[in-house]
Specification:
- The complex is a heterodimer of chains A (454) and B (284).
- Chain A has helices at residues 11-20, 27-53, 68-79, 81-92, 102-123, 149-182, 187-195, 203-236, 248-274, 283-313, 317-328, 332-344, 352-355, 358-385, 401-424, 430-444.
- Chain A is an all-alpha fold and 454 residues long.
- Chain A has one domain (24-424): Formate dehydrogenase/DMSO reductase domain (Formate dehydrogenase/DMSO reductase fold, Up-down Bundle), CATH 1.20.1630.10.
- With 284 residues, chain B is α+β, with helices and mostly antiparallel strands.
- Helix content of chain B is 22%, strand content 14%.
- Chain B is built from 8 helices and 10 strands.
- A 4-stranded mixed beta sheet of chain B has the order 8-1-10-9. In chain B, strands 2-3 form a two-stranded antiparallel ribbon. In chain B, strands 4-5 form a two-stranded antiparallel sheet.
- The chains are: A mainly alpha (454), B alpha+beta (284).
């Protein structure tokens, strides 16, 4: 079994390698940035058209009122669970193989949430009044309707976003200090000096840091679970057939962890190649990540089967008709594509041959995320096309180019944020990698790192 | 309070109808529609358009599903083995059921839809932010969203239709959800006039637009709390109770002629509209 990381990497080397990623970018970076900006402008254009003309341009209609915006919103919230899984959950489990990769995963969380927040606004018919959903004191003495799952969403996502940003920032402080100490003068040095809050690396600071980090991690885990459960309750709390399913909260959380892990694999391969992080984002770590993704894929498959099974043995004829409609109606190709990408394709991750084959993993991880996006869409659209009431049947509706444009542009927005992050902040956590190297070197010499630790 | 007591109370609370401990005192507006009388002429739909300033969206938008009829005539075909396809047509006017336990009210994030004291499901246009969750949760799908800014769109009220717009009703801009209000503007005027005279609204004094124009008198509208109201008598004869989700009809001789039912009652929405089933040829 290969080592997760070499034990003899010098700490100065770690600094040098990671700080190298912050250098002035090469041409390809600017090309991709321009492409991302082009994608964003497509989305902005579509949104301006929609804002001025009306939601009708999205091709939604009167019994089919939700479509890709909500689907993509849930997709981005789902993807945001990656960071929490890797940074917080694996931290509590002392899985130190997460150390080289959790920084960009945590960044991914923050930016996914920021993208998801945009979709909430794009989806509203009167987005200029989105602040009505927030509980602010006003002269009309009107509060939002706290019974509504959408209001719970607003609270949950706001809390999760602010906690994730805090977690990302706090975790970065020692690294920002390293950047401050090793970078030449300029705007970067000023930025890092301010952001590292005077970190000196004293014992006391490290002790406080460890406690703070652990506290936020413990706080963030139930938050992550509750955020996606609340988003799931947007559906579970309604009475539409196909939505009124109690297993939706855990199903959505499993789907979220799944998409998050698949996205981490994709970005892992990209960053490893672009920044030459082969020493840190090693193949054994990839293998562990792939196995984790496989496990979560199987959990998701299981929960999917539970949903189908409960419809099968339940008394609700409408729910049964709904499921058959999903599998055989006009949305059937997308439904089966979701099943294939979500449940069948990950089976290949069980084979050792593919667990470290980076080109295949790159393609597969993107397809897994496509499957998960399709899953969200297939929860929404078929239920509208075959509801309780016969008048709603055969109301299948296909999204217009405006919707596709905005969905497409959101990936550009995410890419832009992530790329700016990678060039301004270290995308590998230097101090944690040093800890990992240190622990591994002690383990090699069979020495305990701390008293009583074997 | 013991555990058993708690469980019983909780069970009662869960099965309780919303207005069991807050009964309607003066008014509870309800409707009954006789499907046997309905000829599917669409006069009710047209009257609703006229009364409530509904925009005429046009053929193209209608075919895209952007229909905007607060009351719609649904056609169901029972034409197996008939000589002409139109012979087995059944018509059902569907409008907002003003559910006592409306699924749309709980899910609006901003509280734009609420229940009034006289039993109407209200829609507050200026509060609506257009999340469309109410329509998603409505089992009848009787809510209509303003997909475009109809008042500024051409040909929405082609000449001289713009001269018949009702000044008592606002026009709705884009991004707002709307639905049948049981002609709340007429109800308000009637109640106000009645209050001036120190009495309640009498049965027949106020009519909804659809009721007023129906040529066969299929629609009956009134106050369920009023013992003299025709609609209340109909509900009672049909043994349909507002507060039940499963009607326990008396299995007497009249059971065969009891045609009254409410749509999708098992979803426990407690709708305020009762339909009288069409007498089928086989039943006569």
């Amino acid at each position: 079994m290969e080592k997760d990381i070499r034990e003899d990497i010098a700490w100065a080397q770690i600094n040098k390698d990671v700080l190298k990623s912050l250098e002035s970018p090469r041409r390809l970076y600017w090309v991709i940035l321009l492409i991302a900006l082009a994608m964003i402008s497509v989305a902005v254009g579509c949104e301006i058209y929609q804002y001025t003309t009306g939601m009708g341009v999205s091709n939604k209609n009167n019994s089919h009122v939700w479509s890709l915006y909500i689907a993509t919103f849930i997709f981005w919230i789902g993807m945001s669970h990656s960071g929490t899984l890797l940074s917080a959950i694996l931290h509590l489990m002392h899985a130190d193989w997460r150390k080289p990769i959790y920084r960009f995963a945590e960044a991914m969380t923050t930016f996914s949430l920021m993208t998801a927040g945009l979709f909430v606004m794009v989806h509203l018919g009167r987005l200029w009044q989105v602040y009505y959903v927030m509980p602010y004191p006003n002269e009309r003495w009107v509060w939002p309707n706290f019974q509504s799952p959408l209001v719970w969403d607003m609270f949950a996502i706001a809390t999760y976003l602010s906690s994730s940003v805090l977690f990302l920032y706090v975790g970065m402080i020692p690294d920002l200090a390293i950047c401050r100490d090793n970078i030449h003068a300029g705007w970067r040095k000023k930025l890092y000096t301010v952001m590292s809050l005077g970190w000196e690396g004293t014992d006391r600071q490290w002790r406080n840091f460890r406690v703070t980090y652990l506290t936020i991690a413990c706080f963030l885990i139930p938050l992550a679970v509750s955020v996606h459960s609340i988003v799931a309750s947007d559906f579970a709390m309604s009475n539409m057939p196909g939505w009124h399913v109690t297993s939706f909260p855990p199903y959505f959380v499993a789907g979220a962890l799944y998409s998050g892990c698949a996205a981490i694999i994709t970005l892992f391969i990209i960053l490893r190649y672009v920044f030459r992080f082969e020493e840190y984002m090693t193949l054994p770590i990839m293998k562990k990540l792939v196995r984790l993704t496989f496990a979560i894929a199987m959990v998701w498959t299981y929960l999917n089967l539970i949903e189908f099974a409960s419809v099968w043995y339940g008394h609700d004829q409408t729910a049964k008709d709904q499921l058959i409609f999903k599998a055989t109606g006009p949305y059937a190709p997308f439904f089966w594509a979701m099943i294939f990408f979500g449940s069948i394709l990950p089976l290949m991750l069980a084979f050792k041959r593919f667990q470290t084959h980076l080109p295949i993993l790159f393609v597969v991880s993107i397809l897994l995320n496509v499957g998960m996006w399709l899953e969200r869409w297939m929860i929404i659209s078929p239920s509208f096309a075959h509801g309780h009431y016969p008048w709603t049947w055969d109301h299948d509706q296909w999204p217009s180019l405006v919707q596709w444009g905005i969905v497409f542009g959101s990936f550009g927005w995410f890419t832009l944020l992530f790329m700016v992050f990678c060039k301004v902040f270290p995308s590998v956590s230097m101090y944690e990698v040093k800890e990992m190297v240190y622990h591994r070197s002690l383990a090699l010499k069979h020495k305990p790192a701390v008293k009583g630790d074997y | 309070m013991s555990i058993t007591n708690l469980l019983e109370n909780w069970s009662d609370f869960r099965q309780q109808h919303p207005s069991d401990d807050r009964p309607h005192r003066e008014y509870k507006w309800a409707m009954s529609i006789d499907l046997d009388s309905c000829t599917g002429c669409n006069a009710c739909s047209v009257a609703c358009y006229a009364e409530n300033n509904l925009p005429v969206v046009g053929k193209v938008k209608f075919s895209h599903g952007h229909s905007h009829h607060w009351i719609r005539i649904e056609r169901y075909w029972d034409n197996d083995g008939r000589e002409f396809a139109d012979q087995g047509a059944q018509f059902l006017p569907m409008l907002c059921q003003h559910c006592e336990s409306a699924p749309c009210e709980t899910v609006c994030p901003v509280g734009a839809t609420n229940h009034t004291a006289d039993g109407l499901n209200s829609q507050v246009y200026n509060r609506c932010v257009g999340s469309r969750y109410c329509n998603a949760n409505c089992p009848y799908k009787v809510r209509y969203f303003n997909w475009y800014d109809y008042p500024t769109t051409d040909n929405v009220w082609p000449e001289p239709m713009n001269q018949q717009l009702n000044p008592d009703v606002t026009v709705r801009g884009k991004g707002v959800m709307e639905k049948c209000t049981f002609c709340v503007q007429r109800l308000t005027v009637a109640k106000s006039n009645a209050r001036t005279e120190g009495r309640l609204v009498l049965d027949g004094e106020v009519q909804t637009a659809c009721q007023q124009v129906c040529p066969t008198g299929a629609i009956t509208f009134g106050n369920l709390v009023d013992p003299l109201a025709k609609v209340g008598k109909q509900w009672m004869t049909q043994q349909v109770e507002l507060n039940k989700d499963k009607q326990a009809k008396n299995e007497a001789e009249e059971a065969a002629k009891l045609r009254g039912y409410r749509i999708l009652e098992e979803l426990r929405t407690y709708p305020s509209v009762m339909y009288l089933e069409q007498l089928r040829e086989s039943a006569i």
